[in-house]
């Protein structure tokens, strides 16, 4: 297997980078910072299964609280504990009735999670043979889902109704958790995904941060790939997927680097980049291409990476994750209203010089207008970056009031930064498909031997889901007998 990677490092939107200062070196994650179930046996997180299969292990740091939600302007933040009793106590400060509803609902969510855990991602495939796999091996798990089977494919708002969660404050909290998970609120996030992630971060699961940052996940996957004979070519751009007689036969590389011929081609590019840039004209029917290009996408983000002086800062009670709602009266999905903050050095002190912290703050930001502004008026572009970054500073002041005076290093990234560094359509982080609509499977209709993986196919957006898409695609490419044999080996490992 040959993996062709445009970037200088593996990981895509989940890589890391460093910057040196007079105080020392700061190390930053570019993407996700919240992980659950990376090391838990039989975890629903597909990454855990893949890493175990590859014989790779991550050293992780467990954390609790999972994060602090700053929702109400004049109240201390809600600490999102894994322990149910602690979480209920926190919610009770804001809504006694909501706390009672939460206490009644969580046991049912745990039941869903335990039943979902009985059907590992490694057992799934994208063809009709998946039914044989499930019926022959996992009917007990499916039976446990019986009471919830009708609601799991539905939006999370339906699950909340099913769980009799009616309190407005609790419904708002669920909206916020869904938005952090999928980029859409509870009206668009599928219930099964919500139950899986909630269960993984609940006291039944394990919330943890990989030592060295998120890039260590990509490095572990790379080691596993190379262990089994795979190869990664960095700084190698794909110009076009080669299609001959209706079948993908390889890729043409940019900058006159030749071609790579292969019997199977997998595209981890976004659906818009795959159909709009990589496939040659006429390779797929016009209607099929238009359907793919019309896939809704999540907005891009503004990012603020800071190296700060950490003197007298104490995060022992609040944790390193913070979510700040600037204006509760505005929609959660309104760009700039919800800001995510990760202070990874809280769990991994080596990511910052002694006495310092590395801070990553980001918020949703539409792509439109940024690219034109950068190409036509660089000064105005830099001014807009500064203005947008100020919103993140306002959010950070909820967590570290004197943050501006502590800054030793400042890096601001716009949606254009994402497009240029990650080669992604409009700097997006993936498809914004709303439940009950389903993410498509890996096959590319009309082109034989071409498959898609990543955050615009099933199971959805996010690093674990992207890993899951690769697992499902790999299973689909092998005969059922081989898949069963592999699953037997997996069950023995787990």
In the CATH hierarchy, what is the architecture of the largest domain at level 2? Alpha-Beta Complex
Total strands: 19
The N- and C-terminal alpha carbons lie at a distance of: 26 Å
Unreliable runs: none
Strand order of the largest sheet: 7-6-15-16-17-14-18
**Helix share of residues?**
25-40%
Number of domains: 3
CATH class of the largest domain: Alpha Beta
Number of H- or I-type helical stretches: 17
Question: Would you mind describing this structure in some detail?
Answer:
- The model has no long low-confidence stretch (mean pLDDT 90).
- The two termini are 26 Å apart.
- The strands form six sheets. This protein has a seven-stranded mixed beta sheet. Strands 4-8-5 form a three-stranded antiparallel beta sheet. A three-stranded antiparallel beta sheet has the order 10-11-12, with no helix packed on it.
- The longest helix has 22 residues, at 96-117.
- The protein is built from 17 helices and 19 strands.
- The chain folds into three domains: 1-39 and 56-79 and 207-233 and 299-428, Polyamine Oxidase, Chain A, domain 2; 83-204, no CATH class; 234-296 and 429-493, FAD/NAD(P)-binding domain (3-Layer(bba) Sandwich).
- The relative contact order is 0.17.
- It is α+β, with helices and mostly antiparallel strands.
How would you summarize what this structure contains?
The protein is α+β, with helices and mostly antiparallel strands.
Question: Secondary-structure blueprint of this entry?
Answer:
Blueprint: E1 2-4, E2 16-21, E3 24-29, E4 35-36, H1 46-53, E5 60-62, E6 68-70, E7 78-79, H2 84-92, H3 96-117, H4 130-137, H5 139-144, H6 156-162, H7 168-182, H8 191-201, E8 207-210, H9 215-227, E9 231-233, E10 238-244, E11 247-253, E12 259-261, E13 265-267, H10 271-278, H11 286-293, E14 300-309, E15 321-325, E16 338-342, E17 356-365, H12 370-376, H13 378-396, H14 403-406, E18 407-413, H15 415-422, E19 450-452, H16 463-476, H17 480-493
């Amino acid at each position: 297997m040959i993996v062709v990677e445009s970037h200088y490092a593996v990981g895509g939107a989940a890589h890391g980078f460093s910057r040196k200062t007079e105080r020392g070196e700061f190390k930053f994650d570019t993407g996700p910072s919240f992980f659950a179930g990376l090391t838990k046996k039989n975890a629903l997180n597909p990454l855990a299964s893949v890493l175990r299969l590859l014989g790779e292990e991550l050293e992780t740091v467990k954390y609790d609280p999972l994060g602090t939600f700053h929702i109400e302007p004049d109240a201390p933040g809600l600490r999102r504990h894994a322990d149910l009793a602690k979480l209920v106590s926190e919610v009770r400060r804001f809504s006694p009735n909501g706390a009672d509803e939460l206490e009644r609902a969580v046991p049912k969510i745990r039941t869903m999670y335990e039943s979902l855990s009985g059907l590992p991602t490694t057992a799934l495939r994208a063809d009709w043979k998946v039914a044989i796999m499930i019926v022959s091996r996992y009917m007990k798990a499916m039976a446990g889902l019986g009471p919830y089977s009708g609601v799991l494919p539905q939006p999370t708002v339906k699950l909340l109704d099913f769980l009799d969660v009616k309190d407005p404050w609790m419904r708002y909290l669920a909206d916020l958790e869904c938005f952090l998970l999928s980029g859409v609120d509870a009206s668009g996030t599928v219930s099964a995904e919500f139950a899986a992630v909630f269960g993984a971060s609940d006291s039944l699961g394990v919330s943890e941060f990989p030592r060295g940052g998120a890039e260590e996940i990509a490095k572990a996957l790379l080691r596993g790939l190379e262990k089994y004979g795979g190869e990664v070519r960095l700084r190698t751009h794909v110009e076009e997927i080669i299609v001959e007689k209706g079948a993908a036969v390889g890729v043409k590389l940019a900058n006159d680097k030749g071609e790579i011929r292969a019997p199977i081609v997998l595209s981890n590019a976004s659906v818009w980049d795959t159909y709009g840039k990589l496939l040659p004209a006429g390779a797929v029917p016009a209607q099929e291409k238009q359907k793919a290009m019309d896939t809704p996408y999540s907005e891009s983000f503004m990012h603020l990476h800071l190296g700060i002086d950490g003197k007298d800062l104490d995060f022992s009670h609040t944790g390193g994750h913070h979510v700040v709602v600037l204006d509760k009266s505005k929609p959660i999905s309104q760009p700039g209203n919800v800001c995510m903050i990760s202070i990874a050095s809280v769990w991994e002190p080596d990511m910052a010089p002694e006495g310092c912290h590395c801070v990553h703050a980001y918020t949703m930001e539409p792509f439109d207008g940024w690219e034109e502004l950068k190409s036509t008026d660089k000064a105005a572009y830099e001014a807009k970056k500064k203005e947008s970054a100020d919103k993140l500073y306002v959010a950070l002041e909820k967590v570290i009031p004197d943050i501006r005076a502590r800054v030793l290093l400042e890096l601001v990234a716009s949606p254009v930064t994402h497009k240029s560094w990650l080669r992604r359509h409009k700097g997006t982080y993936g498809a914004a498909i709303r439940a009950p609509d389903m993410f498509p499977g890996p096959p590319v209709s009309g082109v034989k031997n071409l498959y898609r993986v990543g955050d615009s196919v099933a199971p959805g957006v996010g690093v674990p889901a992207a890993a899951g898409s690769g697992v499902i695609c790999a299973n689909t490419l092998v005969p059922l007998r081989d898949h069963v044999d592999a699953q037997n080996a997996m069950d023995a490992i787990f």
